Amino acid sequence: MLLIPCPNCGSRDETEFHYGGQAHVPYPENPAELTDRVWAEYLFYRDNTKGAFAERWLHSTGCRQWFNMLRDTVTYEIQAVYPVGAARPDKAAPAPESGTASTAPDSTTTGTAAPDITGTSTAPASATAPEGATK
C-alpha cells in the first residue's frame, strides 16, 4: 500500500486520493483557435516517463485539496510533494520520510510474485450457459 504525504493532512493511505494526471501541462492560451488535432493532443497525449514523473493528486476524502507530487514510476518512491502552481523541484531533492511502497514479494503494488495459474485451462468455455444465466 502506498502512503501519500498530503501537504495539509500528513501521510494517508492511497485510497483517500485520486490521481489527476500529469502535472505542469499548461492550458492553451486560445483554445478556440486550435485545430482538432492540436486540441486532441492537449487533452489526451501525456508523457509516459520511466523514472521521476510529476503528477497531480487530489486528497478527495480529506482536505479536498490538489497538490503535485514527484514520484518515481519504477520504484513508486515519492521524491517530493509541492503545491499546485509551484515549479517542479529538482529530481535530486531528498525524499520525504513517509510515502513509500511496500516491496514485499506478495505486495499488490510493487511485488514480483506472479499469481499461481497452475490448473487453469485456456480451452474455450462450453457453449452451454449455467442454469440461471442469461445469454
Summarize the entry for a quick read.
The protein has 135 residues and is mainly beta.
* Main sheet specs: 4 strands, antiparallel
* Coarse structural class: mainly beta
Tally of DSSP helical segments:
1
Number of strands: 6
Could you name the ranges where pLDDT drops below 50 across 5 or more consecutive residues?
A: 92-115
Q: Cα distance, first to last residue?
A: 39 Å
Q: Helices and strands, in N-to-C order?
A: EEEHEEE
Average pLDDT for all residues: 79
Lateral strand order in the biggest sheet: 3-4-5-6
Chain oligomer state: single chain
| Overall shape | globular
Assign a percent range to the helix content.
under 10%
- Strand fraction: 15-25%
Instruction: Specify Rg, calculated over alpha carbons.
Output: 21 Å
Topology:
Elements: E1 3-6, E2 10-13, E3 18-22, H1 36-44, E4 52-58, E5 66-72, E6 78-82
Antiparallel strand pairs: 1-2, 3-4, 4-5, 5-6
